[in-house]
């Protein structure tokens, strides 16, 4: 799979389209042995089955556990259901005055999902950070600089741990909303683009491939992300559209397409098959440039999870 991923990035004719299914803990908790049986039927996606038993209730992150926890920045995360992702409900920088006294954490966290833009929103709260971007007080740049300084330290630590060249290095920061960016593209370029460029530059210079997951509508800034050094972009199809993504990305950057998880709970299996085929026809090519990804939670019927796997296996060989 890794060899085909690299070939797809470089557009060097992979043997198959790389495919992946991410199963959230909530789905394992609900379906248990029945879901394990689906996984066993699809070694191309999940690898060969092992004999060891699976802990269907396992959760590997605090943010997927019911209750509350505080991260290294002092943000309070709250979760009402183990197996699904938490959300930030407590923001440690509620006023602009508090930006002045905010201390950069000594503790390292390796830049989790939401390391730059979302971190700003987590610290200030969404409404407050939107007002900051609108009014552009000096505290906005001050806050950005503190978060960037921390992230550059994390990036240096991560880079030091990577051996060799040509590795795929994953980052995740949700930059969009359902139908638009939360701020104008011009303000994104003014305040945030320089941050991503600085964070990604050492990895690009070291010969690695930068992979960026970003939920929401991001069409307008995808060219900017490529200028920042992104080699693989992981956008949501529902928020951006296949044709629009093809116009911005095809032949320019490898797309790891996040298939339409908003529709997975409601579609019939034949709809899923048609969706995957359309994605391959519009974004794919024999030379590469496309990966496919599906995420499933406990709201997706088991037969639809099976249909997702069947479609990904079938259409991964579309250009073979």
Could you characterize the architecture of this molecule?
The two termini are 14 Å apart. This protein has 15 helices and nine strands. The chain has helices spanning 2-10, 25-31, 33-40, 43-46, 96-101, 117-124, 126-135, 138-161, 185-191, 193-205, 222-227, 237-240, 242-249, 269-283, 302-315; strands spanning 19-23, 67-70, 76-79, 87-90, 168-172, 209-213, 230-234, 254-258, 290-296. Helix 8 (138-161) packs parallel to helix 10, helix 13 (242-249) packs parallel to helix 14 and helix 14 packs parallel to helix 15 (302-315). The strands form two sheets. It has a six-stranded parallel β-sheet with strand order 1-9-8-7-6-5. The protein has a three-stranded antiparallel β-sheet with strand order 2-3-4, with no helix packed on it. The chain has one domain (2-315): TIM Barrel (Alpha-Beta Barrel), CATH 3.20.20. With 320 residues, the chain is α/β, with parallel strands linked by helices.
**How far is the N terminus from the C terminus?**
14 Å
Largest sheet: 6 strands, parallel
* CATH arch. level architecture: Alpha-Beta Barrel
Helix count, per DSSP?
15
Note the overall shape: globular
The amount of helix comes to 40-55%
* CATH class bucket: Alpha Beta
Q: Please, how many domains?
A: 1
Give the DSSP E fraction (strand runs of 2 or more residues).
5-15%
Question: Can you lay out the helices and strands and say which pair or pack?
Answer:
Layout: H1 2-10, E1 19-23, H2 25-31, H3 33-40, H4 43-46, E2 67-70, E3 76-79, E4 87-90, H5 96-101, H6 117-124, H7 126-135, H8 138-161, E5 168-172, H9 185-191, H10 193-205, E6 209-213, H11 222-227, E7 230-234, H12 237-240, H13 242-249, E8 254-258, H14 269-283, E9 290-296, H15 302-315
Parallel strand pairs: 1-9, 5-6, 6-7, 7-8, 8-9
Antiparallel strand pairs: 2-3, 3-4
Helix pairs in contact: 6-7, 8-10, 13-14, 14-15
